[in-house]
Amino acid sequence: MNKYRRILLKLGGESLSEPGGFGIDLARADQMAAKIKRLHDRETEVAIVMGGGNLWRGVDGLNHGMERATADQMGMLATVMNALALRDALDRAGLETRVQTAIEMKQLAEPYIRLRAIRHLEKGYVVILGAGTGNPYFTTDTAGALRAAEINAEVLIKATKVNGVYDSDPLTNPQAKRFDHITYMDAINMRLKALDMTALTTCMENDLPILVLSLWEGDSLERAVQGEQVGTLISH
Fold first, then answer.
1. pTM for the full model?
2. CA-to-CA distance for 212 and 127, rounded, in angstroms?
3. DSSP label at 15?
4. pLDDT digits (tens, 9 = 90+) for 89-125
C-alpha cells in the first residue's frame, strides 16, 4: 500500500551521467527509467522535474562575465535535452510518457499546461517537466516545488547523491549529523543546502512535504513511496 499516490520527483542532471561525469549516459538513463517503472508498477503517478547540471553549469558562464539571464536560459535548454533523453528511455521501458516545457517548443514537446499535466497523470502517463519555470533567476528546485503544488502532488521527492539532509557537508565532514526529520523553518534558519530558500518557502506555504533521499541507494524510491523511513523528511 502506497503512502503517496502522486509524487513530484526532482532529478538533478547528474542522474543521467556517470558519477563525476558530464553529458548523457544512455545506460544510466535506462537505469533511471527502470526505477521509475517500478514506481509506476506500484500505481504511483509520477511527474518529474529535470535539472541540467550534467550539460551546463550557469556558474561557469557567470564566472566568465556572462549575463545571468542568458546563463539561466541555457540551463533551461539543457533540462529539455535531459527530459527528451529520459523520455526515450521510459518509452523503451514500455511507459507512456509526455514531456512538457515551460518554454514553448512545439516541435519537441507540449507546452506546460497544468490541467493537461494532471490529466496525463490520471491516465497513468509519466510526465516530464522541462525548462524549469521558464524564467531566469529561478532554480529547478523552485520549479519542482512550484509544479508539485500546481499538480497537487502529495510529496516533493528530491533524489540526490546524498542520503538525506545534514547539518554540514557529509562529503567533507565525517562527523556531519543527518536528520530524519526537520521542519521547514529549521531548514530555512539553518540555511541548509537541501533546497534553495524559494523552494523551501513555496513548500512551507503550501504544506507540501519534501523528502530528500539518495537516488542510487537500492530501492529507496519505492520504500519512500510506501512510507518507510528513508532519507530526511522536511515538513511542519
1. 0.95
2. 20
3. G
4. 999 999 999 999 999 999 999 999 999 999 999 999 9
Q: What's the total number of domains in the chain? A: 1
The CATH number of residue 126's host domain is: 3.40.1160.10
Residue range of the domain that includes 156? 6-235
User: Number of C-alpha atoms within 13 angstroms, CB side, residue 6?
Assistant: 20
Q: Which residue has the cell 526515450?
A: 88
Give the DSSP per-residue string, 194-234.
Answer: SS-HHHHHHHHHTT--EEEEETTSTTHHHHHHHT---SEEE
The answer to whether 154 and 188 are in contact (CB under 8 A) is no
Quick one: angle between helices 140-150 and 114-122, nearest 10? 70
Q: Are 136 and 74 in contact (CB under 8 A)?
A: no
